[in-house]
Specification:
five-stranded mixed β-sheet, 12 strands, 419 residues, D-Maltodextrin-Binding Protein, domain 2
């Protein structure tokens, strides 16, 4: 009797072990087959939230792929990405800035050639002109998500309260400052890079010359640079804009700044809170010396781009994620126009069908598209070192530590040597 019981127990244990082994085997196999890739991007909380949701949907569609996410605000992202790209530890799929292409991939080998992955990434959604932005040395290093341009946004409520029309020329802004400065209100404002590009636009219209030639060499003379420096000082002294070091985005929300220079895909970020506070924010004309020159001297560029690491171990899976981020309805609906109007035809069609292409950001993008005079921004114009040299020269003149001719000469030689 005891032997029978023992035999039955032994058989039961063996069966349980065998069943457990059979049950666990596909789980272990599935785990071993899962490919892990990494995605990195920069942005605010809203962008982080919808991108994480998009990744979850991608993983549900492709349970054999696990996506690890890395994200932060722009300054931290840029610094960390610089180290990662030089040490070959970057993400498989990454959001990059347009000016990173010549810096990190001057020969086209710094990022993966996406054209070799055309069976997975639907490149037919993009025109040849769009794809050209990401081509270095005949290699498709990156694909633009949307286009972008510096844009003038105006708080029409404040201008109306003073009986002023929305400015179209620089003289209009100076006249507005004469009225507003008694109340400590600035007609316009902007961070350093925006003001730098704005002053380049002014000087190009005045001189009829471009800041850089087509080869990326400095095309401005010392006299042209002096015009830039003196114009900045005039903007500050006559209270048209606050000094860039003291620019505070919160002052847009409260109406202390009656205008803001910001990128077209940043419209909601800069104007949204003011609208919530009851102000009417509108897209103004591209400022010009005269209305006839409206739109000249202004530049457009890819807002942001996606690239694949040149040393990824999983190019196919990375391409699948890239295609999802650029072309899928899921991502299009989650992202909306937060990064601008999508350049992907399928993504744009999805947003049109959903009635999402509306609002101030859409209006800014349409104004950019309709500006036939707009040129492509050369990446060098966003070089931080170059912009910092300009700011230092402006302050030397603003605080009367040097004369205009001296400041312009020093700036000229710094730029020539720096470029």
């Amino acid at each position: 009797m005891n032997k029978k019981i023992f035999s039955l127990l032994t058989c039961s244990v063996i069966c349980i072990i065998n069943l457990s082994s059979c049950a666990e085997e596909p789980i272990i196999k599935s785990h071993n087959q899962q490919t892990v890739i990494k995605l990195s991007w920069w942005g605010n909380d809203s962008r982080n939230e919808y991108t994480l949701k998009a990744v979850e949907r991608f993983e549900k569609l492709h349970p054999d792929i696990k996506v690890n996410c890395s994200y932060s605000e722009w300054s931290g992202y840029e610094a960390r990405s610089r180290v990662q790209m030089y040490s070959d530890t970057q993400a498989d799929v990454m959001q990059i800035n347009y000016n990173w292409l010549p810096e990190y991939s001057p020969d086209g080998n710094g990022y993966y050639d996406i054209s070799t992955l055309a069976d997975t990434v639907d490149l037919n959604n993009f025109t040849e002109d769009v794809l050209k932005y990401g081509i270095i040395n005949d290699k498709l290093n990156a694909i633009p998500i949307a286009m972008n341009s510096l844009t003038v946004y105006v708080n029409k409520t404040i201008y109306d309260s003073y009986g002023l029309d929305v400015p179209e020329t620089w003289d209009d802004f100076f006249k507005s400052a004469e009225v507003m400065r008694k109340d400590n209100i600035y007609p316009l404002s902007g961070a350093l890079k925006s003001v730098w590009l704005y002053i380049i636009t002014y000087t190009e219209q005045i001189t009829g010359k471009t800041f850089l030639d087509k080869s990326g060499n400095l095309n401005f003379s010392k006299n042209d640079l002096q015009i830039m420096l003196e114009f900045y000082v005039k903007l500050i002294n006559e209270k048209v804009i606050p000094q860039v070091e003291y620019f505070d985005k919160l002052n847009i929300d409260t109406g202390t700044y009656a205008g803001i220079l910001a990128w077209s895909n940043d419209a909601v970020n800069y104007c949204g809170k003011a609208v919530e506070n009851g102000y009417e924010m509108i897209v103004a004309e591209y400022t010009a010396v005269t209305p006839e020159k409206c739109g000249t001297g202004w530049y457009a560029k890819p807002a942001t781009m996606y690239a694949i690491s040149d040393n990824t171990e999983h190019p196919t899976e990375s391409a699948m994620l890239l295609d999802f981020l650029l072309n899928s309805d899921d991502m299009a609906l989650l992202q909306g126009i937060e990064k601008g109007i999508p350049l992907s035809e399928s993504a744009k069609n999805c947003l049109e069908s959903a009635g999402i292409l509306t609002g101030i950001q859409y209006e800014a993008s349409i104004k950019m598209e309709n500006n036939k005079s707009m040129e492509t921004l050369q990446p060098l114009l966003e070089n931080e070192s170059l912009i910092d040299i300009f700011a230092e020269s402006c302050n030397m003149l603003l605080y009367e530590r040097s004369k205009a001719e001296e400041s312009a000469e020093k700036l000229y030689y710094s730029l020539v040597n720096g470029l």
